[in-house]
Amino acid sequence: MATDTKHSNPESIRANANNKHQYRERIIVSIVITIIALSISSAFYSYCNNKKAIKIVQNSTLYTSQETTDETLKRWILKDEGIVRIYGWSALRVDPQFYFVSFAFDSDYNYCNGWDLYSFEVDIKNNVVRKISEDKTLKEKYQRLRFID
Question: Which one-letter DSSP state was computed for residue 128?
């Protein structure tokens, strides 16, 4: 009667079980590392596109041809004595191509009662900026999305 010597030895069975367990651990660790790497790269990509959208607006000349939008808005804000706090630029991704960009400021120290902002829609693929306040369709779109009141 022939027996399989590979599995008849208890130490061999334990070693085989340990190898399987180590293999599973390696697979799990690899999956976790991949998920973390993808999350970090996705966050970095989103951060880069947010910054790109803000830069597109800042460097545009929507209000005057002599200065950038960033220079114009900051000049207006600094001239207005009623403004007590400047929140600055921010961007939110609407979809892969379009971003909602705003420059926010406040005339009081109460953040809870709202603040004022200049808002823009940015097409980052085509480097196109549109003022939301001057386009009824855009205004309705961003009100529906609850980006603005």
Answer: E
Q: What is the tens place of the pLDDT at every residue in 82-121?
A: 888 888 899 999 998 999 999 988 888 777 777 788 899 9
Cα distance between residue 14 and residue 33, in whole Å: 28
Burial class of residue 107, CB neighbours in 10 A (0-12, 13-18, 19+): middle
For 46, residues 6+ apart whose C-beta sits below 8 A from its C-beta are 93
Q: What is the pTM of this model?
A: 0.68
DSSP state of 47: H
- 3-class SS at 8? helix
pLDDT in tens, 3-60: 555 555 666 666 666 677 777 788 787 787 777 776 776 666 566 888 999 999 999 9
Domain boundaries, the chain: 1-149
With contact defined as beta carbons under 8 Å apart, do 108 and 84 qualify?
yes
**Bridge partner residues of 85 (DSSP):** 106
Hey, which bits of 37-146 come out as E strands? 85-93, 98-106, 116-123, 128-131
* Four-point Cα dihedral 105, 109, 114, 119, nearest 10: 0
